[in-house]
Amino acid sequence: MEQKQRVKTYWEREACGEIHSEAPEGAPEFYAEVEQRREELEPHIERFADFAGARGLSVLEIGVGLGTDFIRFVRAGAKATGVDLTERAIGLVRRRLELEGLDADLRVADAEALPFEDGSFDRVYSWGVLHHTPETQQAVREAIRVLRPGGTLCVMMYARHSWVGYGFWVRHALLAGRPWRSVATVLARHMESEGTKAYTRSELARMFAGVEELRIDKVATVYDRQLAGPLARLTGDRLGWQYVIRGRKPS
After folding, report:
1. Helix (H) and strand (E) counts for the chain?
2. Is the model's pLDDT at 25 over the cut of 80?
């Protein structure tokens, strides 16, 4: 089985952001719990996503997961399109839209080969997704391709030099008697779906070369604090688990 199929199989079992809840899957209470949990774990999303500022814009989200960010774009009045590699995610998000009486374009699609013409969207958004696809650089090229000239993108990817990365290395390399293993190797084998990648700032700068007004912000997360405790507060965002990449397509 090729790697992309293994990635798809992994996320078909449990969509990104899914929680174990007493509420029936697809019920209003289920989605309310999902939304609350995401807000608790990643409260900084709203600052970067700028949902309110998407009103009237054509927005593409690559990798909708359970649709918690996607539905906020729709609620804000964006002309929203969402894609995901898995039928499971698309089905759950369609149900979520139905419950709120909302409408949007949802499709099963591959981030490395988006089914849209050049310059189709004012904004492209992808949170914690592109580092899972085997050819991440190709997915980045596709995200930029479907942006209109002057359009903006916001992408989150994992940071290799982070408390989460180091925590996984301690557990799966040092304590496993394999200290020669790199953080990148450990994450590719043990973090979520097979082949998950985490990057350095310089790697991301090269990956998004050509994007204007490029900003790469590192963010410390709940996951870092869970692993490092008080140390995470001392290091702040410097050893955060998430990089948020923003910029504008040259016009």
Report:
1. 11, 7
2. no
Cα(218)–Cα(245) distance, rounded to whole angstroms?
9
Q: Please identify, in words, the CATH class of the domain defined by 3-248.
A: alpha beta
| Contacts of residue 120, Cβ cutoff 8 Å, sequence gap at least 6 | 58, 60, 146, 148
| Amino acid in the structure at residue 177 | G
Report H helices in the chain. Answer: 3-13, 28-41, 45-49, 68-75, 87-100, 136-145, 163-169, 183-190, 201-207, 222-228, 230-235
User: Is the pTM value of this prediction over 0.85?
Assistant: yes
Return the closest-CA partner of residue 241 out of 207, 192, 180.
192
Q: Please give the C-alpha separations between residue 246 and each of 58, 86, 133, 164, in angstroms, as whole numbers.
A: 17, 26, 20, 22
Q: Are 60 and 120 in contact (CB under 8 A)?
A: yes
The predicted structure's pLDDT at residue 27: 79
Helices (H), 119-162: 136-145
